Amino acid sequence: MWHLKLLAVLMICLLLVGQIGGSPVPELSLAKRRLRRMTPFWRGVSLRPIGASCRDSAECITRLCRKRRCSLSVAQE
Q: What's the CA gap between 68 and 76, in Å, rounded?
């Protein structure tokens, strides 16, 4: 009977040692990682409305970013 217990303990130890020896999959470097591109559909859906904050004109639905806000008119001074 003690042979079975000893065998069970050894099997568990072997399984645990196998888990420790396994290494995680290395991450891809930044140069190898492929950037995701938005499709035209999602680019159109994700455009910001008038008055929303923006960094450049490509983010706004009107394509006009003035003073870090999506604008409706070209000259807003």
A: 12
pTM to 2 decimals?
A: 0.41
Question: What is the widest separation between alpha-carbon atoms in the chain?
Answer: 91
One-letter amino acid for residue 31 of the chain: A
Q: Residue 69 phi/psi, 5° resolution?
A: -135, 145
Residue 39: DSSP 8-state: -
For the purposes of burial, counting CB atoms within 10 Å of the CB of 70, is it exposed (0-12), middle (13-18) or buried (19 or more)? buried
Query: How does pLDDT run across 38-64, given as a tens digit for each residue?
Result: 777 777 777 888 899 988 888 888 889
SS3 49: coil
User: What was the pLDDT predicted at 24?
Assistant: 66
